[in-house]
């Protein structure tokens, strides 16, 4: 029996309905967070203040969902006393739900920057870079949630590797925008708003990577944090 089958067995036999419910709620929260990021970027690109304000309003819903999942996990810990791979599943969801909430915070910040840009006037630069990074980050978030639903550690590793591409693209975009601000100081305020958007997108990628690391540990017991990619790939290839 492989690790995926063991985890599924834990859900259906040992953790039963309680853990299945919390896992479903976690994935539902992930779906809302994913939509928040998409909506925040659509609001930015389309200069849609109403959509931006809807994203801002929805942030409180994400916060409530985080609290609900945390409370469900605490009940499971108190009543079930999980051990070994069972405990890894509970811990992974507990840590990953925090990353989801922080991704929601970054969507909130992007929406707030959209409102600021609407009031101050659009930025002369940075939208193309924001769209490009947003597409990559949205794909990462979608893929890691899909991997979580399927207990797919190898797919999670692909998400981890994708984060390095985002980091490089982010750094290049920031250098370009800093250069432009130096050439045209009148654009500083508006450029700074776009830089805040880029920073938020880069952090979304970081949080997606964190979830991927937790998933790898949950499914295979491999500690992926601060571990060389070659070593992670070597160990996953042995599975």
UniProtKB/TrEMBL annotation:
Q: What is its main location?
A: cytoplasm
Which Pfam families does the record match to this protein? PhoU
Biological process annotations from GO: intracellular phosphate ion homeostasis; negative regulation of phosphate metabolic process; phosphate ion transport
Its domain of life?
Bacteria
Q: Where in the cell is it found?
A: Cytoplasm
Keywords attached to this Swiss-Prot or TrEMBL record, sorted alphabetically, are: Cytoplasm, Phosphate transport, Transport
Q: Which residues form a coiled coil?
A: none
Q: Could you tell me which InterPro entries the record lists for this protein?
A: PhoU, PhoU-like_sf, PhoU_dom
The PhoU domain covers which part of the protein? 28-113, 132-214
* Gene Ontology CC annotation, any one: cytoplasm
Similarity-based family:
Belongs to the PhoU family.
Q: Which PANTHER family match?
A: PHOSPHATE-SPECIFIC TRANSPORT SYSTEM ACCESSORY PROTEIN PHOU (PTHR42930:SF3)
Quaternary assembly: Homodimer.
Any idea what job this protein has? Plays a role in the regulation of phosphate uptake.
Record's protein name: Phosphate-specific transport system accessory protein PhoU
Organism of origin is Amnimonas aquatica
Its gene name is: phoU
């Amino acid at each position: 029996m492989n690790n995926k089958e063991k985890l599924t067995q834990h859900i259906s036999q040992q953790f039963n309905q309680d853990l299945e419910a919390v896992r479903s709620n976690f994935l539902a929260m992930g779906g809302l967070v994913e939509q928040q990021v998409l909506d925040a970027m659509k609001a930015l690109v389309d200069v849609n203040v109403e959509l931006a304000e809807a994203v801002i309003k929805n942030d409180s819903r994400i916060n409530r969902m985080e609290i609900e999942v945390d409370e469900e996990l605490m009940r499971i810990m108190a009543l079930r006393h999980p051990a070994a791979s069972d405990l890894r599943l509970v811990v992974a969801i507990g840590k990953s739900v925090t990353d989801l909430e922080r991704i929601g915070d970054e969507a909130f910040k992007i929406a707030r920057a959209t409102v600021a840009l609407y009031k101050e006037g659009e930025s002369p630069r940075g939208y193309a870079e924001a769209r490009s990074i947003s597409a990559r980050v949205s794909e990462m978030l979608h893929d890691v949630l899909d991997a979580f639903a399927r207990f797919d550690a190898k797919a999670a590793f692909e998400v981890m590797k994708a984060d390095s591409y985002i980091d490089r693209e982010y750094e290049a975009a920031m250098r370009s925008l800093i250069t432009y601000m130096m050439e045209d100081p009148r654009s500083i305020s508006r450029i700074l708003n776009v830089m805040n958007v880029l920073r938020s997108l880069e952090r979304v990628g970081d949080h997606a990577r964190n979830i991927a690391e937790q998933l790898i540990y949950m499914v295979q017991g491999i500690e992926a944090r601060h571990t060389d990619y070659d070593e992670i790939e070597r160990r996953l290839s042995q599975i």
